[in-house]
Each structure stands twice: as C-alpha cells, then as structure tokens.
Amino acid sequence: MKKRKAERYGAVDRTFEIKLNKPAKGLKAVKVLIIVMLVAIVLGLVFIGSRLYFSNDNKPVKTSETEAFADTELNDELLRIVNKSNPLEKDYVPELVERDGYFVSPLAADALDSMLEAAEKDGIDLSVLSAYVSYKEQNKLYMKKYKYNKNRYNLTEVRAQAKTETVIPQAGNSEAQTGLLVTFKTKGKFAGSKASHWLMSKAGDFGFVQRYPADKEDATSMKANEAVYRFVGKDNAQMMRGLNKTLNEYVLYINSR
Q: What are the extents of the domains in the chain?
C-alpha cells in the first residue's frame, strides 16, 4: 500500500511540474513578442522622422535662439545692401509710388504713411525730406559735395573722394536708389530733436531702422546721421533692434547662421 501511495504522489508531482513549465514557456514567448513590437515601433518612428526631416530640409529650424527668424521677412530687396562693393546699375529703377511730392518703394509706402500719422498724433513735427534718388540725381549731389570738399579743404582728388563718400555715396552706391531709404526733417536741427528721439523709439514698430547710427560708423562706413532711416520690414527691424545691429551687421549675422 505504501508503495502505491508513493507512486501516486510521484505522478501528481510530475503533473505539477509539467503545468508549471507551460506558463514559463508562454511568458518567454510574450517577452519576445513585446521586444519585436518595440523594435517595430522604433523603426517606424525613425522612418517617419527621416521623411519629415528630408521633406522639410529647406525650412528654417526653430530653436530657442532662432525661433524669431522663422517668421522674419527675409525679402532680398528689403535686406539689400548698396555700397561700393554692391553697387546698383545706372539704369536700375525700382517700382515706385508717389507720396506728397516724393517717391518711395511700395514695400515701404504704407508703413511710412502709418508712421507719419502716428508721429502727428503724438504731436511730433516729422516729415520726409527725401526718399528715392535716381542715379543721375545722386551723381549731382555727390559731385557738388565732392567739389566743395576738394576746394574748401584743399584736398587731393583721392582724399576729397574719400571724405565725400562718408556723407554722400557716389551714384550707384546709394540705397536711396532703392526707394527704401528715407531722410526725415523737422523744424530746426534734426539731431537731438523730439522727432529724432521719437523715431529712435518708434520707427522699429513700423519696419524702419536708423541706417547710420552714431556708434556704428565702422560697420556702415558712413558718418552718423539721425535723420536717415531704412525700411527693412517690421520683423527685421525688431530683430535688429533686439540684437543692436545695423543692416550691414544683421545681414552678415543671418548669412553666418
């Protein structure tokens, strides 16, 4: 009797052993399935990411440092620098619209109107002295100043030219020919006037920046002039103000990124 009982219990033990082994094998299969699924998900994400990357390789990448550049107006015309190294052709004439006896680029016209209206509401005496200047007219302005400097200071041609070009560029080297450069006026002296201070504070809100700031002569190669402003678009103007950069410095900054 004892022997049979032992055999019976032995059979029960073997049965338990078999039943315990089955769940272990099933668990291993589940683990393998989970791993396969995870690998598939990762590969899928990599594939989707690569498609998105290559489909947007020409779009600006937004980061905390460059996020503002995503919507910045990077219009070639708005950021065009005109000087001895980047002259305009003699026959270059941009699209222009007339405003109270002067001409200006349509890119800047509405913003200029709005800025002048805002200045008037604030009680600021501000008006336009000049805007678009043709190649021919620029040459007249330059030659007049050149002859004055040469005779007044008894300068050589080279020195007279160098002195003149820091105030009035030669024809073809002036941004006034683009219709985006505006020289303002007020009653009396402009430098240090209420109009000058108002523009320094408000011009950027309308897309204008001071073209030749007093502390940036090395960057612009021009003598400071508080009355001369350049239209670059609101986004660019705000970025330039935030970075404390002239148009020359700003364009270099963008191109270096």
A: 1-59, 67-133+174-255
